[in-house]
Write a structure and sequence with these properties.
The protein has 171 residues and is an alpha+beta fold. It is built from 7 helices and 8 strands.
Amino acid sequence: MRQRLGVAQALVSSPKLLLLDEPTSALDPGGRRELLEFIGALRGKTTVFFSTHILSDVERVCDSVAILDQGRVLAQSTMDDLRTRHGNRRLSLEVSAGANALARTIAERPWAISVHPGPRGEIDVLVSDVETAQHEIPLLISNQGTGLIRLENAEVGLEEVFLELVGNGER
């Protein structure tokens, strides 16, 4: 309630710029959704800058994003541009059988940065060379004697872009 009241007080004078620091941090899921919808409704009327570590909130309401690390701006762009620049390196595939064995085989390839098998035959792969991976993965599947159901570029989220730019928090 206090968060929403603070935002309402700030908007009484119809400001052109609104600065918010962790606006959804103390809210329950319903309150978070309401506040994010309210912030989204300000689009075109008020420029809203907000800092948060809840990146899904950023994806829901922001048109433009700046990623900072220790006071340095690492990237500043539209959400679509960030996804385009960083999203073409993630592949998603699904096989009819043997996903775990295939994931281990893919992980040994020099272009595989990270490999995450799922519970139903799906595998997400972050790659350094998309073209090579797209050529080799079907061969690896064929050599294993299993069927390819799907192979596609996967959309990345802001969290993945952030971790790629900042690192995995290992300092």
